[in-house]
Request: fold
Amino acid sequence: MYLLTNTQNNKEPWNIGKLIGQKSPLKLKDIWAIRIHLKMKGRTRDLALFNLAIDSKLRAGDLVKLRVKDISNGGQLRKWAIIMQQKTRSPVQFEITPQTRDALSKWINKAALHPDIFLFQSRIRPHHHISTRQYGRKLLK
Reply:
């Protein structure tokens, strides 16, 4: 007969002292602090990605799959964009604010992106977008 006892296995729970569950939303001062930090560090792509994430409120999978043509029209960045969500198959309309358009414009010019190219390309795999895991790491840095 085999008895399970917990006398030898006194492990501490993994979540002791950790915040679990949904995180509180960013405050406006935190958003501006992140924007200023990214701008001062010269991280053009990360600033464009962060600003677009804040403006659009899209899921990570939808955001990383954006192409240049989704936010621009004939070389001009749009003030509004409509994106079809992958999960719900419903359209989402969002405003692209002036500071986001400025950051995106700088990124597109710096990376010399064409309309059919992903806005945030993978550096490892040509002609692919960054992964949602990489997107998460960029935002948590």
About this structure: The domain at 44-140 is CATH 1.10.443.10 (hpI Integrase; Chain A).
